[in-house]
Write a structure and sequence with these properties.
The chain is of the alpha+beta class. It has one domain (about 5-190). About 45% of the residues lie in helices and about 10% in strands. It has helices spanning about 10-20, 45-55, 85-95, 100-110, 110-125, 130-140, 140-150, 150-160, 165-180, and strands spanning about 5, 30-35, 55-65, 70-75. It has a four-stranded mixed beta sheet. The protein is globular, with a radius of gyration of 34 Å.
């Protein structure tokens, strides 16, 4: 692993770094601890928010070990494609007063025509927006596995991501898609479980009776009504 990795325990820690370095650094690998570790760590959505505020964008993702991974952040290039989700999020950050001059300049330089085209494709063709596709491609293992899946799986998995009504949900689903693909497994909603065999029925000890056939007890030999039996004479 070539470049150094910087971990931030809080969102404000990454923001302070960007305040000092957004206009002079060319990249930063941000380390993130997985939630299961319980260690304090900035989350991916939080890191993306701060990057948007300063005109940066997330890119390549690499695993460090079982407990953590890292994401490469770089300044966004002028005229680069903006996803519909990031456009809406940037507007929210502007309303909140979090957007910085560098982030505002990058936002104003976006190509509106491309954003509109991707919005149409998302509604009608279920495609990932440019930023999300870049995130999926950033992991070689995830991208190779995803591309190897049949068309129905790719279409359905993408729709599962882009159909989320809340941005937070969409980001979580995208993270799940990337993580599962990198691990070589389908996402849970599309995982096909092996059919379970029904438990073998115990063999009946007695032969089942045909419901259409009645069984009769054996007949006793009838006595001829015209013949009487006499007790032997004494």
């Amino acid at each position: 692993m070539s470049a150094e990795t910087t971990f931030f325990a809080t969102q404000s820690g990454f923001r302070r770094w960007l305040e000092k370095n957004h206009d002079r650094a060319s990249e930063l690998w941000v380390g993130l601890h997985r939630r299961a570790t319980g260690r304090p760590s900035i989350t991916w959505p939080e890191a993306v928010d701060e990057a948007l505020c300063f005109g940066w964008i997330d890119g390549k993702r690499e695993g460090i070990d079982e407990r953590s991974y890292r994401i490469r952040f770089t300044p966004r290039k002028a005229g680069s494609n903006w996803s519909v989700v990031n456009i809406e999020r940037a507007k929210q950050l502007i309303d909140l007063g979090s957007m910085q001059p560098a982030g505002l300049r990058a936002f104003e330089k976006r190509t509106a025509e491309k954003a509109a085209a991707y919005a149409y494709e998302q509604r009608h063709g279920s495609v990932l927006d440019p930023d999300d596709q870049k995130r999926l491609r950033a992991s070689d293992k995830a991208w190779d596995f995803f591309q190897a899946q049949p068309p129905w799986y790719r279409r359905t998995a993408i729709y599962w991501v882009v159909s989320a009504k809340r941005e937070e949900t969409r980001r979580k689903r995208l993270a799940t898609l990337i993580e599962d693909s990198a691990a070589g497994r389908p996402i849970a909603p599309l995982a096909r479980k092996a059919p379970t065999k029904a438990p073998a029925k115990a063999k009946a000890k007695t032969k089942a009776t045909d419901p259409g056939t009645r069984t009769r007890s054996p007949r006793r030999k009838a006595t001829d009504p015209g013949t009487r039996t006499r007790s032997p004479r004494r």
